[in-house]
């Protein structure tokens, strides 16, 4: 069977968007709007872009109105810098924070249904790590649509893309990037419904495949967040950056890890331990429950370790309480109604009356495909790959450094999507028509697929997946040590080998869920390997990356980690300096943008 | 809205009994009662269309009173009498539910629990009253007075709905269906009632012929049949249009419906004019 | 285990290669807190890797996982085993794909085709009102928003369309129609005429007979029939 896999059709277009989520479609909508007639194809694993993971984002999107009498963009920049533990790039911070409000207005004018204030304006709520006057008091900065901000954003960019004639191809995966002499010329896609391969040739390719936290047992991520985009990039011999920075959100619902948005704490919810003590007062006396996520997640694990956690019988898991009982009825019913209902439905508690059990959940990948401030993918810190862009969670410009503040991700999707759109429109002016596919097109994916399809092994898919998820959770999770990381790397090699020997349920290519999942599992193992290696190499603690054996931040590691892994476990490292342009410009308050201490 | 209707214990007992019927036990918990009521409305409408054709055919026998009376005598057999009484069920159900739909769609009456409860009670009452008159056969009421009142009420219903929807962007035919429906609401309920109250007015050719000489009754019947045929025609079309995409097939079927209604109109109106 | 249930799933299967359809019975021992998606995963892991089913977010936010359980269209990721046993008062569940689009394999349907209906309803602002004089965002009062915000929660799971009395043919369907109505109610939309034409077109709101199954099954608890009735009332 495997031998006769072929490319069934070839399609050409101007722009190929791999991953029609919030980021990818913001770029597509911008290009469609600015350059009518551009042929844009947007791919997604799900049936419609509307079902992309951005839809599940709840809390809000940060943006400061430059005309705001109280809040200032510079405060936002400072918070982002501080939140990143001094590892974000300041050129990107400046660009994104300054563009934010304009993009917010764009969303609103294109139909997003933001919640409103009595003054009929966009409503805002506070969020972790966002403060006024360089860390004094909490800022109302997260613009929101009840507890479905991500849905509002996703619907808007999907709608606008639809309006501008973007072609959507759902239920497909991009399986391989295509290159001609270093220039990216498109990708091979595999379609689920009919099991066909197509080569899509494009003048520009944008990778926007979103997050990848599915290698963790407890995660807020969706079924399809399996690191495909990162695996494709690595397979192509290109680097990824800072993957060791995995954010654990402190409040996942015990059990599946469904997210209980930070907006809850923004509205005043309080974390309590076994003795119902509001323990965050001890760890972060000023910010308390609105301290950054990494800090709270570690605080919770520390509570567990010191015996002040609780144990959930039904799910066999440790947890602490999230207390929402004191919030006004109005808040329960209007502002957080959706999240409240999750607790009722999936955990069986009523947040108005009961304490809610929560536990840290793998949530966000700060690292990703390295790009410059225009979203152009880098081959090394000095060189870009012509024709290839990346944005959204899969990319790293880097706005978040090693730790992201809540609501900054949606902001990044939208602003960077637009920045890329701008660059692409420029790029399209003199980009040549794509000719035919490269002669070796498909060699990577056909190799992989024929292995999976021909496998007669006896390994169990479920067992490999479960082992991987437990391994990553325990050894490459919130607290890391050299010993654990080395063990994890050894185990990952073993899992990778086993994953080549999973018996296939059916060799039909049509709607073969089994095949699709085995491919995804391999991507997860690939990405896990890079995370583990990155974590091993960074012998310091910074942002979300915490090494118990090196608990302090170290100036020695003031750089971004580049990792190349063209073949499994063939790792080479590189370094990219952190951009300090705000500090170096010596403007007002520049001293705050030095390597400062991070305390809340 | 996960059917948040509060029901009493008696009601839930009755519902649990009704739900023993297989088709109901499948659809009631999976689609809700409104869904079943909608199917009921559709089936009742179609039954009435069928009845209407038969009815107009029988009435056209009035040109030969002897045949008519012979035919009507058949109805005295208890099986047919019973069936005739059964017609009250689709009549009152379709009428009341049509009223409910008009209230929901056009007058924003969203208190469905109250409306449906009232429907059930009024419907049962009506069916028993018709049955009672049927058996008694001895009441007397002035036909002119009865129709004067009924027509007045019908006109009021007609005008309210007319003013409510005439200016909306809905298609004229659709609007007319609601308007004719609201006019027929008192008319049809009354028609069936009076035909059994004064039993002879409905079943004896001499009485019928005598009564139909009155220009007033002629007028009433005329409006009634026009409205009814339009309503029934559009109703049947609307069902067909749910299943068949706009195109030649739908067009041919629509023409068929129009012909059927036109033929009925010819026979019905000829009767009114000629007698 | 605090609560486990022995449940029987009778699942409709379809193989696109041979075009065969059949019903397959699976016995599963499942914890009461498992969602139906977890149960399917369990079947994949322990009994049959080929059973295909769809999901994405797995917490009722994306609308990828619609199926029919004992005739009722619902989200597989939202139904817990314990609740299913209570709600349907049985331990045997007949599971079928939703009927609004062709089946690809087993419980997976080609929702891309169903989405064509939503696309036809043009869910975007066709002609946004000109920028407000004060600059920035449009001013919309919370009260105005309140009149239609419920309808904006729709995730296009097509449960309503599956349940509806007439949307299997050429009615655009409750959800698509509602997205048109939302924009008619949205103060920012100025293209009312084309929207009205869509509303009162042959595939429009006349095909709705207020059967209200849509509102009955909607997992987001949207009273869809209310919005469709507003469409018939026609005052925007
Ligand atoms: C539960 C939750 C709540 C969140 N809340 C917030 C919040 O309140 N504020 C905030 O700022 N951020 C929040 N985030 C983070 C934020 O939502 C995500 O980072 C962001 O949505 C990612 O968007 P994206 O466009 O990069 O990717 P996605 O929206 O995930 O889109 C990725 C797209 O790529 C497609 N794809 C993936 N792989 C392939 C492939 N191989 N081939 C083809 N297509 C592919 C997918 O199908 C999808 O369409 C939250 C995240 C989660 C999980
Ligand atoms: C007495 C008062 C009546 C009222 C208030 C009334 C009302 C209505 C209404 C509102 C509808 C629209 C339902 C919809 O589209 O969902 C309708 C449909 C219909 N009516 Fe009537 N009606 C009445 C009498 C009749 C009679 C006497 C007949 C038959 C001869 C009839 C036949 C039909 C048919 C066939 C339909 C189509 C049903 C469907 O689309 O499912 N109606 N009626
Ligand atoms: C079973 C009970 C019914 C009886 C006994 C009955 C009897 C009659 C009689 C005797 C007439 C002659 C005209 C008159 O006297 O005014 C008549 C006319 C009429 N009936 Fe009925 N009817 C019944 C039910 C219905 C129903 C259910 C409908 C609607 C579907 C209906 C529709 C009409 C119409 C439209 C006319 C006028 C006919 C014409 O002008 O030719 N009747 N009915
Ligand atoms: S209206 Fe409700 S049932 Fe219908 S598609 Fe939207 S969310 Fe699903
Ligand atoms: S079920 Fe269908 S008929 Fe109308 S009220 Fe809902 S769309
Ligand atoms: S998987 Fe997203 S709604 Fe069920």
Characterization of this structure:
- The complex is a heterotrimer of chains A (600), B (275) and C (236).
- By secondary structure, chain A is α+β, with helices and mostly antiparallel strands.
- Among the domains of chain A are: 251-360, Flavocytochrome C3, Chain A, domain 1; 443-574, Fumarate reductase/succinate dehydrogenase flavoprotein-like, C-terminal domain (Methane Monooxygenase Hydroxylase, Chain G, domain 1).
- Chain A has 16 helices and 21 strands.
- In chain A, the strands form 5 sheets. In chain A, strands 1, 2, 6, 7, 8, 9, 17 and 18 form an 8-stranded mixed sheet that branches. In chain A, strands 11, 12, 13, 14 and 15 form a 5-stranded antiparallel sheet that branches. A 3-stranded antiparallel sheet of chain A has the order 3-5-4.
- In chain A, helix 3 (90-109) crosses helix 11 and helix 13 (461-475) runs antiparallel to helix 14.
- Chain A is globular, with a radius of gyration of 23 Å.
- Chain B has 275 residues and is mainly alpha-helical.
- Chain B has 2 domains: 1-31, no CATH class; 34-274, Up-down Bundle (3 helical TM bundles of succinate and fumarate reductases).
- Chain B has helices at 9-18, 22-31, 33-60, 65-74, 78-86, 88-107, 112-136, 143-165, 172-197, 199-203, 205-211, 215-243, 248-274.
- In chain B, helix 3 crosses helix 13 (248-274) and helix 12 runs antiparallel to helix 13 (248-274).
- The radius of gyration of chain B is 20 Å and the shape is globular.
- The N and C termini of chain B lie far apart (55 Å).
- The mean pLDDT of chain B is 91.
- With 236 residues, chain C is an alpha+beta fold.
- Chain C folds into 2 domains: 4-109, Beta-grasp domain (Ubiquitin-like (UB roll), Roll), CATH 3.10.20.30; 111-233, Fumarate Reductase Iron-sulfur Protein, Chain B, domain 2 (Orthogonal Bundle), CATH 1.10.1060.
- Chain C has helices spanning 36-46, 81-88, 111-120, 142-148, 159-163, 174-185, 192-199, 213-217, 224-233; strands at residues 4-15, 20-31, 66-69, 72-75, 92-97, 103-105, 108-109.
- A 5-stranded mixed sheet of chain C has the order 2-1-5-3-4. In chain C, strands 6-7 form a two-stranded antiparallel sheet.
- In chain C, a hairpin with a 4-residue loop joins strand 1 (4-15) and strand 2.
- In chain C, helix 6 (174-185) packs antiparallel against helix 7 (192-199) and helix 6 packs across helix 9 (224-233).
- The model of chain C has no long low-confidence stretch (mean pLDDT 95).
- Chains in contact: A-C, B-C.
- Chains A and C meet through helix 3, helix 4 and helix 10 of A and helix 1 and helix 3 of C.
- Bound molecules: flavin-adenine dinucleotide, protoporphyrin IX containing FE (2 copies), iron/sulfur cluster, FE3-S4 cluster and FE2/S2 (inorganic) cluster (FES).
- One protoporphyrin IX containing FE (HEM) binds at residues 48, 51-52, 55-56, 59, 84, 87, 91, 188, 191-192, 195, 202, 208, 211-212, 217, 221, 224-225, 228, 268, 271-272 of chain B.
């Amino acid at each position: 069977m495997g031998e006769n896999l072929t490319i069934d059709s070839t399609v050409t277009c101007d722009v190929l968007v791999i991953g029609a989520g919030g980021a990818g479609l913001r770029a597509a909508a911008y290009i469609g709007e600015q350059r009518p007639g551009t042929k844009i194809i947007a791919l997604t694993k799900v049936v419609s872009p509307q079902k992309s993971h951005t839809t599940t984002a709840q809390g809000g999107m940060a943006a400061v109105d430059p005309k705001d009498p109280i809040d200032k963009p510079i405060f936002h920049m400072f918070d982002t810098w501080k939140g990143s533990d001094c590892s974000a790039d300041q050129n990107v911070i400046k660009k994104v924070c300054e563009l934010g409000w304009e993009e917010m207005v764009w969303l609103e004018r294109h139909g997003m249904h933001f919640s409103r204030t009595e003054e009929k304006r966009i409503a805002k709520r506070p969020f972790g790590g966002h403060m006024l006057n360089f860390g004094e008091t909490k800022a109302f900065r997260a613009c929101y649509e009840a507890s479905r901000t991500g849905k509002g954003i996703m619907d808007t960019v999907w709608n606008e893309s639809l309006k501008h004639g973007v072609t959507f191809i759902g239920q497909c995966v991009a399986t391989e990037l295509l290159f001609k002499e270093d220039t990216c010329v498109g990708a091979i896609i595999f379609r689920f419904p009919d099991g066909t391969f197509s080569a899509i040739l494009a003048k520009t390719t944008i990778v926007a495949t979103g997050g990848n936290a599915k290698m963790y047992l407890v995660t807020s991520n969706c079924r399809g967040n399996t690191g495909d985009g990162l695996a494709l990039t690595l397979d192509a011999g290109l680097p990824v950056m800072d993957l060791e920075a995995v954010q654990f959100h402190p409040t996942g619902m015990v059990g599946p890890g469904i997210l209980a948005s930070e907006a809850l704490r923004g509205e005043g919810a309080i974390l309590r331990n076994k003795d119902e003590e509001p323990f965050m007062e001890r760890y972060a006396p000023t910010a308390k429950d609105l301290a950054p996520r990494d800090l709270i997640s570690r605080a919770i694990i520390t509570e567990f370790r010191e015996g002040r956690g609780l144990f959930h019988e039904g799910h066999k898991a440790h947890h602490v309480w999230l207390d929402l009982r004191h919030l006004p009825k109005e808040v329960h019913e209007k502002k957080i109604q959706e999240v409240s209902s999750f607790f009722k439905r999936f955990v069986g508690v009523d947040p108005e009356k009961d304490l809610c059990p929560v536990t840290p959940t793998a949530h966000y990948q700060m690292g990703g495909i390295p790009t410059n401030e225009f979203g152009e993918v880098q081959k090394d810190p000095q060189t870009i790959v012509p024709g290839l862009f990346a944005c959204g969670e899969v990319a790293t410009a880097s706005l978040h450094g090693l730790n992201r503040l809540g609501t900054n991700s949606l902001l990044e999707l939208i602003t960077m999507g637009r920045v890329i759109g701008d660059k692409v429109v420029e790029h399209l002016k003199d980009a040549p028509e794509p000719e035919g596919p490269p002669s070796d097109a498909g060699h990577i994916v056909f190799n992989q697929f024929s292995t999976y399809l021909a496998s007669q092994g006896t390994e169990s898919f479920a067992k490999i997946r479960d082992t991987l998820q437990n391994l990553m959770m325990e050894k490459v999770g919130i607290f890391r040590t050299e010993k654990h990381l080395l063990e994890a790397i050894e185990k990952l090699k073993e899992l990778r080998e086993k994953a080549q020997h999973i018996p296939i349920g059916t060799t039909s290519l049509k709607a073969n869920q089994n095949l699709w999942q085995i491919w995804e599992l391999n991507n997860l193992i690939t990405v896990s390997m890079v995370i583990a290696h990155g974590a091993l190499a960074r012998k310091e603690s910074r942002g979300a990356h915490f090494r118990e054996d090196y608990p302090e931040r170290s100036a020695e590691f003031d750089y971004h980690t580049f990792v190349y892994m063209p073949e499994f476990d063939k790792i080479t490292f590189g370094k990219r300096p952190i951009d300090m342009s705000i500090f170096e410009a010596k403007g007002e308050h520049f001293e705050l943008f030095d390597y400062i201490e991070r305390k809340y | 809205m996960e059917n948040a209707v509060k029901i009493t214990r008696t009601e839930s007992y009755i519902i649990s009994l009704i739900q023993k019927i297989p088709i109901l036990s499948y659809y009631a918990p999976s689609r809700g009662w409104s869904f079943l009521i909608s199917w009921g409305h559709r089936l009742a409408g179609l039954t009435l269309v069928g009845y209407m054709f038969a009815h107009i055919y029988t009435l056209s026998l009035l040109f030969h009173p002897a045949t008519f009376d012979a035919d009507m005598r058949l109805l005295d057999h208890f099986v047919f009498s019973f069936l005739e009484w059964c017609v009250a069920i689709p009549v009152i159900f379709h009428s009341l539910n049509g009223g409910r739909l008009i209230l929901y769609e056009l007058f924003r009456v969203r208190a469905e629990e109250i409306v449906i409860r009232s429907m059930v009670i009024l419907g049962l009452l009506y069916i028993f009253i018709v049955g009672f008159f049927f058996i008694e056969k001895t009441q007397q009421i002035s036909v002119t007075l009865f129709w004067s009142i009924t027509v007045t009420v019908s006109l009021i219903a007609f005008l309210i709905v007319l003013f409510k929807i005439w200016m909306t962007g809905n298609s004229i035919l659709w609007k007319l269906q609601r308007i004719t429906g609201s006019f027929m609401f008192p008319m049809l309920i009354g028609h069936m009632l009076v035909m059994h109250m004064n039993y002879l007015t409905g079943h004896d050719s001499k009485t019928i012929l005598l009564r139909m000489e009155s220009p007033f009754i002629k007028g009433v019947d005329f409006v009634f049949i026009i409205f009814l045929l339009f309503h029934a025609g559009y109703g049947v079309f609307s069902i067909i249009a749910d299943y068949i995409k706009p195109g030649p097939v739908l067009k041919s079927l629509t023409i068929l419906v129009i012909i059927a209604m036109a033929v009925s109109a010819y026979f019905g109106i000829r009767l009114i004019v000629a007698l | 285990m605090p609560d486990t249930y022995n449940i029987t799933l009778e699942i409709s299967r379809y193989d696109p290669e041979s075009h065969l359809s059949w019903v397959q019975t699976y016995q599963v021992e499942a914890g009461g807190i498992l969602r139906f998606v977890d149960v399917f995963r369990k079947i994949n892991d322990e009994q049959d890797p080929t059973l295909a089913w769809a999901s994405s977010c797995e917490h009722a936010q994306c609308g990828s996982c619609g199926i029919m359980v004992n005739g009722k269209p619902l989200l597989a990721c939202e139904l817990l085993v314990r609740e299913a046993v209570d709600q349907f008062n049985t331990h045997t569940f007949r599971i079928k794909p939703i009927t609004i689009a062709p089946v690809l394999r087993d419980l997976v349907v080609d929702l891309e085709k169903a989405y064509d209906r939503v696309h036809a309803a043009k869910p975007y602002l066709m002609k946004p009102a000109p920028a407000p004089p004060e600059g920035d965002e449009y001013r919309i009062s919370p009260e105005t928003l309140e009149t239609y915000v419920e309808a904006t929660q729709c995730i296009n799971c097509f449960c309503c369309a599956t349940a509806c009395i007439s949307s299997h043919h050429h009615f655009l369907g409750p959800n698509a129609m509602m997205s048109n109505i939302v924009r008619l109610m949205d103060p920012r939309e100025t293209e009312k005429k084309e929207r009205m034409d869509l509303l009162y077109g042959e595939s429009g709101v006349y095909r709705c007979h207020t059967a209200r199954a849509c509102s009955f099954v909607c997992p987001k608890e949207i009273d869809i029939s209310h919005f469709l009735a507003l469409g018939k009332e026609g005052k925007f």
